[in-house]
Design brief:
61 residues; mainly alpha
């Protein structure tokens, strides 16, 4: 990968990690169960999107 491609990949991964962190911060112990379930569903979506990005990155052995 070129330096530009590496920078873009790192930026994209960073954005997705930020989305996961933001979704995780919404979780609160005292919230209603429905709200917790909705927040967990959002967190799962963010983690899934991050996994897709990571899977698309070329890996060199």
């Amino acid at each position: 990968m070129t330096r530009f491609e590496t920078s873009r990949v790192n930026e994209t991964i960073g954005i997705h990690i930020g989305m996961v962190q933001q979704a995780a911060r919404k979780l609160r112990m005292g919230d209603e169960i429905q709200l917790i379930e909705a927040d967990l569903a959002e967190l799962e979506k963010c983690i899934s999107a991050l996994k897709e990005v990571l899977a698309s990155v070329p890996h060199y052995a």
